Amino acid sequence: MNRRIANLLTVLPVTAALVAPPVLACTSMVVSKGATVDGATLMTYSADAHELYGELYYTPARRHATGAMRDIFEWDTGKFLGRIPQPPATYSVVGNMNEHQLSIGESTFTGREELEGPAGIVDYGSLIYIALERAKTAREAIQVMTSLVAEHGYASTGETFSIADPKEAWLLELIGKGKGQKGAVWVALRLPDGYISAHANQARITQFPLNDPNNALYSKDVISFAKEKGWFKGADDKFSFADAYHPLDFGGQRFAEGRVWSIFRRAAPSMKLGVEYADGSAPGKRLPLWVKPDKKLSVQDTMALMRDHFGGTPLDMTKDVGAGPYAAPYRWRPMTWEVDGKKYVHERAISTQQTAFSLVAQMRQSMPGPIGGVLWFGLDDTAMTVYTPMYAGIREVPKNFAQGVASRGKFSWDSSFWVFNWVSNQAYARWSDISVDVQREQGALEGQFLADQADVEKAALELYKRSPEEARQYLTAYSVKQGERVHSQWRKLGETLLVKYIDGNVRDEQGKVNHPKHSEEWYRRIAKERGRTLEMPPEPEKEEPKPVAAPAAPATPAAKPGPKPTVAPAP
After folding, report:
1. What is the Cα–Cα distance from 54 to 431, expressed in whole angstroms?
2. How many domains does the chain have?
3. Would residue 150 count as lying in a domain?
4. CA angle (367, 370, 375) in 5-degree steps
5. Pairwise CA distance, residues 67 & 290, whole Å
6. What is the pTM of this model?
7. Which residues span the domain enclosing 214?
8. What confidence tens digit (pLDDT) does each residue in 250-261 have?
9. pLDDT tens-place string over residues 320-355
10. Is there a domain that residue 523 lies in?
């Protein structure tokens, strides 16, 4: 990272190790308030990229002088793109949530190649964090984001954004107009109350109402531009954004929609959504944009939906030889490969090794913004992380989560990102055993946070009546303490795992070393492939011993005569 970017970290969140755009990265879902047990709106986001460093961004609220400008650096690469005017004031932002509980996530769908390389200075990452600084509601955020690209031009490829506040949840899909053309075409739909939606690197909005501004917003040229390019012919009310700008193909189904399918099938099993929506066997078959869950979801339920490896489905990653002897649901990249002229794939699950950070944003209309908004923040793989509560109104973040502690190219024990990665990589090597230990600790920590939440917020609300700033300071101290606690306990967990499983052994609770066997199925696979080489020769047959007659008992020896008695002489 160059010195200039480092100096601007407090102005614009920039990753410490900046890289090329992610491929098939990121999963996000939104849950309307009518679909949750506590009436909260929920939004999830996993930032997945092999070179992205995980940290919790923090930008304090600021007032800006007339004429103040903001530098724009591309989120993926750190490249300077240009400058835009600052508004008179901006809001404080913690990660992907601001002090008014507005939250934004994304996933890149790229879209048609012809639309890459648009002219502009605002990339998708900057759109997120600028909108969080300038908007209070989801509708305001959509207006900010689309106005920015109209005025200053767009600098990225196709994106789907999850945008939510305590009242509403929206999906915004946006794509530039191609090389040399400024601006973007876009459409935004409001999630019906009582429903959930998700997206993962595939454009998902198809047809939308043209005269319903309460529920649908779109650029004035979103249809005419597609017609001009020859991607759509027909009546405007039949127009499909996704079909025009990002047609669904095998990769879109298998690697992207597969993750959405896994969320929907678990949240709404009654819909009986078959694997054909995900495995590419039914080309063009589209999932619904949103579904109604079978039961209302809690924060904990939503966390669980972001932890998945297709378990129990035909795409289950633990069932083939690639899972190894410990049934690891992970495959190292590349995702596609070829053997003997045939092409194959590895699955792309929601829980994946290259996640930098993930979150579950909880937004509640019943409380003041600084208290009602909770960013449940985790580092590294969603299956292995601990979602730690960071309140919307806090004034600082835990030092181990903060920007600048380390980078993708620089390890530090003070970095929670690196500590979580260390533990996760131990688990990947011996998944079926170590994941149990990790998830036990994960459940204990998250369970305690959730159990304490009501009392923490009750105390914060009492303080807020007297002084909103006292409430913020109280929640800051609480959030920082929990972040430090998670960091400390996770490092201790890693040390415990290293001792317990060193050299392929397993120590029991008394410290005794055991040598557990692999599964019989794994041994059978080895025998099938290498049996001729590894098979031991049969043991030689042992001859039955011949019966041996018992020896005769020895004769009893004759008694030897004793000495003759002495006769006393007569007197």
Report:
1. 23
2. 1
3. yes
4. 100
5. 43
6. 0.90
7. 3-406+413-448
8. 999 999 999 999
9. 999 999 999 999 999 999 999 999 999 999 999 999
10. no
